[in-house]
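does this look right to u?? adenosine-5'-triphosphate version
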Amino acid sequence: MTAVELATDNGQMVSENLTGSPLALRGVTVSYGSEPVVFSVDMTIEAGTMTAIIGPNGAGKSTLLKAALGIIKPLAGRVTTWGGSLDSQRARIAYVPQRASIDWDFPTQVRDVVMMGLFRELGLLRRVRAKHHAKVMECLTRVGMQDFADRQIGQLSGGQQQRVFLARALAQEADLYLLDEPFAGVDAATEAAIITVLKELRNEGKTVVAVHHDLSTVEDYFDRVFLINRRRMGEGSVEAAFTQDALHATYGGRLGDGLIARAG
Ligand SMILES: Nc1ncnc2c1ncn2[C@@H]1O[C@H](COP(=O)(O)OP(=O)(O)OP(=O)(O)O)[C@@H](O)[C@H]1O
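got this back:
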């Protein structure tokens, strides 16, 4: 599919070519119960960029990512990946969930978690060959976790756990990486290691989208921002969209002006 049929507010159908966008949302509304938590969101992720999804607690950032991944079915609206359906492109998308959402007591070794990133390549028979073990070690090395391959995941620090899940995403060799708060609760060394890998991916032409909380690092880390507070509050390059006005509109009085003052 190369064009997407969309209904405008007045009910007219328009056609839009979204093949150049690794991820696009149009009119996405998500509800967990009777009340929608994300309202009619349009989002267009540009290929080869790093986008920060920012907004206050409870703004719907994680919900938006889950809807983008098909983990939650939107009440209304459309999600396209490279202009096509999500199901046909799933292998090209890697997801690093919020650390808090994972059961770390599950008895599994670090190398097995990373091997999960290869499950499509392993096929139905799951025959693990030397090249697969080598790939796992290569990905662990890339995030500085090569010495922990045999460790139980429950015996890792928060930052180490986050690196292992990034290694799993790397093993998948995806084109689009969606990360939910990759820097939450990690030390400075881990944060630096993660951002280095993400920038390398971007420089290889991959697309990175991360839910991000620390407004003080947005300009250093990201090319683009998407602002949300239940609704889309802004989207664009960091220079154009990460402005004091947009932050005030998105966060209201909940943010210190000191942080907002950092934005242009
Ligand atoms: N499984 C769920 N069932 C019901 N309500 C939920 C569920 N998950 C999230 N919500 C609600 O939906 C709203 C959006 O939550 P979401 O986790 O997407 O926000 P967020 O912007 O990622 O927040 P945070 O920055 O605190 O992580 C919140 O009001 C939250 O309480």
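The two ends are 39 Å apart (CA to CA). idk if thats expected tbh
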